[in-house]
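step=encode ok
step=design start
structure_in=
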């Protein structure tokens, strides 16, 4: 039996990490090309240029907004003309995925510099490809993980709190999906079984969220870096990335992908929709009531959605949810890693059960607080 785990080449995290960007990039060459999202382009350029310290010449282009085949082709053409020896992605998850795909198309190493901790995209050998309109299209499995992931927690702390919370929603799925893959002996993102290391890291991710999530949210609201914030950034970025990639994905991310077919959900972040997918996984997989209560409680404590209305689907009908479920249950989707009976009808039932429980609990929260 073969097991396989994959990791980024180098992970650097801490307040002020941008100051060593040039030192880190210089390991791969003296000319780079950066895909920058609007926030990075408009607000971080002075810090980025100072961090380069003259060690690397970095050309850049503004990211267009969707990690689509069209955007990847556009940026790859510009990067090729720049003579870059390394590609850098600086920004949020879709900009980072785009940079990874550009680097792959050019056969170059990629350095990832997230400005928010909203997904586990930074460390992975994976780009999630969407249509130009924002609907999920496919996973692009890459042959290499990023050569470098550099996370400046001072930058993360300055971002809106919603991003950090969305990252906790994405990370929340990690242990449940990896555990279901372990039980089912389902493949991870390499196509093989994961090692015990991956499952242990996935569990550490979940435990870290429960222990430090509320404290980290409070620190981020004050735009300060604390040990709790550092722990949650590491959980959202590194632990969740290693856990999903080497442990495996299951129902939560498949249901997220299904939710993207409904335009009403496009205003909500990846991790917010994954949180609903995780709660649906718990219902679908018949998890113990005490565990379901714990996960609902965590979501409520940090502000993750627990109802369909919270992701724009307050008036959704069963026909629309069936479209979601059919997409979630498409051939090749990760929902088939579930060690339980799966079909579109059961997915619709799980989503309705989540909505009912979330609504019931929301009605009791003021009474509990009083």
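sequence_out=
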């Amino acid at each position: 039996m073969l097991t396989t785990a994959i990791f980024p080449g180098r992970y650097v995290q801490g307040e002020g990490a941008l100051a060593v960007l040039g030192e880190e990039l210089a390991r791969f060459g003296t000319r780079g090309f950066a895909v920058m999202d609007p926030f990075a382009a408009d607000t971080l350029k002075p810090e980025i240029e100072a961090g380069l310290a003259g060690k690397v010449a970095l050309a850049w282009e503004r990211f267009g907004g969707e990690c689509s085949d069209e955007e990847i082709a556009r940026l790859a053409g510009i990067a090729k003309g720049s003579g870059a020896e390394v590609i850098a992605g600086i920004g949020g998850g879709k900009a980072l995925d785009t940079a990874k795909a550009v680097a792959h198309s050019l056969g170059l190493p990629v350095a990832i510099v997230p400005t928010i901790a909203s997904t586990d995209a930074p460390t992975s050998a994976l780009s999630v490809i969407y249509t130009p309109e924002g609907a999920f299209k496919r996973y692009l499995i890459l042959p290499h993980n990023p050569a470098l992931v550099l996370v400046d927690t001072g930058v993360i702390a300055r971002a809106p709190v919603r991003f950090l919370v969305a990252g906790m929603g994405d990370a929340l799925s990690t242990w449940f999906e990896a555990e279901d893959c372990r039980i089912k002996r389902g493949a991870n993102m390499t196509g093989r079984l994961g090692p015990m290391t991956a499952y242990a890291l996935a569990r550490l991710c979940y435990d870290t969220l429960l222990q430090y999530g509320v404290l980290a949210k409070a620190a981020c609201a004050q735009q300060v870096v604390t040990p709790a914030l550092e722990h949650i950034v590491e959980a959202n970025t590194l632990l969740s990335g290693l856990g999903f990639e080497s442990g495996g994905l299951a129902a939560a991310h498949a249901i997220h992908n299904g939710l993207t077919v409904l335009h009403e959900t496009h205003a909500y972040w990846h991790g917010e929709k994954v949180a609903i997918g995780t709660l649906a996984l718990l219902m679908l997989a018949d998890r113990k009531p005490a565990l379901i209560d714990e996960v609902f409680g965590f979501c409520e404590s940090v502000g993750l959605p627990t109802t369909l209305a919270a992701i724009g689907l307050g008036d959704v009908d069963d026909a629309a949810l069936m479209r979601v479920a059919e997409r979630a249950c498409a051939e090749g989707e990760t929902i088939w890693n579930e060690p339980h009976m799966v079909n579109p009808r059961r997915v619709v039932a799980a989503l309705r059960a989540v909505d009912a429980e979330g609504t019931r609990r929301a009605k009791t929260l003021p009474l509990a607080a009083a």
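step=design ok
step=annotate ok -> Residues 11-157 form a domain with the Rossmann fold fold (CATH 3.40.50.1970).
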